[in-house]
Amino acid sequence: MEENYTYEELSKKTVAQLRELASGMEHEALQGYTQLHKADLLAKLCEALGIPMHAQQDVKGIKKTEIKGQIRKLKLERNKALEAKDSKKLREVRAEMKLLKRHLRKAAS
Questions:
Q1: Are 107 and 58 in contact (CB under 8 A)?
Q2: Tens place of pLDDT for every residue, the chain, 109 residues?
Q3: Which of 32, 40, 43, 54 is the most exposed place for a label (fewest CB within 10 A)?
Q4: In 3D, which of 37, 58, 42, 35 has the Cα closest to residue 6?
Protein backbone atom coordinates (compact mmCIF):
# COMPACT_ATOMS: atom_id res chain seq x y z
CA MET A 1 0.00 0.00 0.00
CA GLU A 2 3.00 2.29 0.47
CA GLU A 3 3.38 4.45 -2.59
CA ASN A 4 6.05 7.01 -3.34
CA TYR A 5 4.48 10.19 -1.98
CA THR A 6 5.96 13.65 -1.82
CA TYR A 7 5.42 16.12 0.98
CA GLU A 8 3.27 18.28 -1.31
CA GLU A 9 0.99 15.37 -2.20
CA LEU A 10 0.53 14.40 1.44
CA SER A 11 -0.12 17.96 2.57
CA LYS A 12 -2.98 18.28 0.06
CA LYS A 13 -4.77 15.23 1.47
CA THR A 14 -7.47 15.51 4.11
CA VAL A 15 -7.01 14.29 7.67
CA ALA A 16 -9.28 11.32 6.92
CA GLN A 17 -7.16 10.36 3.90
CA LEU A 18 -3.95 10.66 5.94
CA ARG A 19 -5.41 8.51 8.73
CA GLU A 20 -6.47 5.91 6.17
CA LEU A 21 -2.94 5.86 4.80
CA ALA A 22 -1.51 5.55 8.32
CA SER A 23 -3.87 2.68 9.18
CA GLY A 24 -2.26 0.48 6.55
CA MET A 25 1.25 1.06 7.89
CA GLU A 26 3.04 -0.40 10.87
CA HIS A 27 5.63 2.03 12.18
CA GLU A 28 6.54 3.27 15.67
CA ALA A 29 5.97 6.89 14.67
CA LEU A 30 2.36 6.19 13.74
CA GLN A 31 1.17 4.89 17.11
CA GLY A 32 -1.94 6.78 18.16
CA TYR A 33 -2.45 8.26 14.70
CA THR A 34 -6.22 8.45 15.21
CA GLN A 35 -5.88 11.24 17.79
CA LEU A 36 -3.36 13.35 15.86
CA HIS A 37 -4.15 16.64 14.15
CA LYS A 38 -3.23 17.06 10.49
CA ALA A 39 0.13 18.81 11.08
CA ASP A 40 1.27 16.19 13.59
CA LEU A 41 -0.02 13.31 11.48
CA LEU A 42 1.71 14.71 8.41
CA ALA A 43 5.01 14.93 10.31
CA LYS A 44 4.68 11.35 11.58
CA LEU A 45 3.81 10.02 8.12
CA CYS A 46 6.79 11.79 6.59
CA GLU A 47 9.01 10.26 9.26
CA ALA A 48 7.58 6.79 8.64
CA LEU A 49 7.90 7.08 4.86
CA GLY A 50 11.32 8.77 4.96
CA ILE A 51 10.10 11.89 3.17
CA PRO A 52 11.77 15.26 3.85
CA MET A 53 9.40 17.67 5.64
CA HIS A 54 10.03 20.60 3.31
CA ALA A 55 9.78 21.23 -0.35
CA GLN A 56 13.06 21.78 -2.10
CA GLN A 57 13.10 24.99 -4.05
CA ASP A 58 14.07 24.87 -7.69
CA VAL A 59 16.28 27.73 -8.75
CA LYS A 60 15.76 28.59 -12.41
CA GLY A 61 17.74 30.82 -14.71
CA ILE A 62 20.95 31.04 -12.64
CA LYS A 63 23.84 28.80 -11.66
CA LYS A 64 23.29 28.36 -7.94
CA THR A 65 26.57 26.56 -7.23
CA GLU A 66 28.62 29.32 -8.85
CA ILE A 67 26.87 32.02 -6.85
CA LYS A 68 27.31 30.08 -3.62
CA GLY A 69 31.02 29.72 -4.43
CA GLN A 70 31.27 33.47 -4.90
CA ILE A 71 29.56 34.01 -1.55
CA ARG A 72 32.07 31.66 0.14
CA LYS A 73 34.98 33.64 -1.35
CA LEU A 74 33.39 36.88 -0.20
CA LYS A 75 33.06 35.49 3.32
CA LEU A 76 36.81 34.90 3.36
CA GLU A 77 37.39 38.46 2.16
CA ARG A 78 35.00 39.69 4.83
CA ASN A 79 36.96 37.90 7.54
CA LYS A 80 40.23 39.39 6.25
CA ALA A 81 38.68 42.88 6.23
CA LEU A 82 37.47 42.37 9.80
CA GLU A 83 40.94 41.33 10.95
CA ALA A 84 42.53 44.28 9.13
CA LYS A 85 39.83 46.63 10.46
CA ASP A 86 39.27 47.91 6.93
CA SER A 87 35.74 49.32 7.18
CA LYS A 88 35.56 50.45 3.54
CA LYS A 89 36.45 47.00 2.17
CA LEU A 90 34.14 45.38 4.72
CA ARG A 91 31.21 47.53 3.57
CA GLU A 92 31.87 46.67 -0.09
CA VAL A 93 32.13 42.94 0.56
CA ARG A 94 28.96 42.84 2.67
CA ALA A 95 27.04 44.76 0.02
CA GLU A 96 28.18 42.30 -2.66
CA MET A 97 27.19 39.34 -0.48
CA LYS A 98 23.80 40.90 0.12
CA LEU A 99 23.21 41.32 -3.61
CA LEU A 100 24.20 37.74 -4.39
CA LYS A 101 21.95 36.34 -1.65
CA ARG A 102 19.05 38.49 -2.82
CA HIS A 103 19.62 37.22 -6.35
CA LEU A 104 19.44 33.61 -5.13
CA ARG A 105 16.25 34.20 -3.15
CA LYS A 106 14.61 35.99 -6.06
CA ALA A 107 15.40 33.11 -8.43
CA ALA A 108 14.01 30.58 -5.93
CA SER A 109 10.59 32.20 -5.65
A1: no
A2: 456 788 888 889 999 999 998 888 888 888 888 888 998 888 888 888 888 876 656 667 788 889 999 999 999 999 999 999 999 999 999 999 999 999 988 887 6
A3: 54
A4: 42
- Which pTM does this prediction carry? 0.49
Q: If DSSP states are collapsed to H, E and C, what string results for 15-62? A: HHHHHHHHHCCCCHHHCCHHHCCHHHHHHHHHHHHCCCCCCCCCCCCC
8 Å CB contact between 98 and 71: no
- The residue count of the chain comes to 109
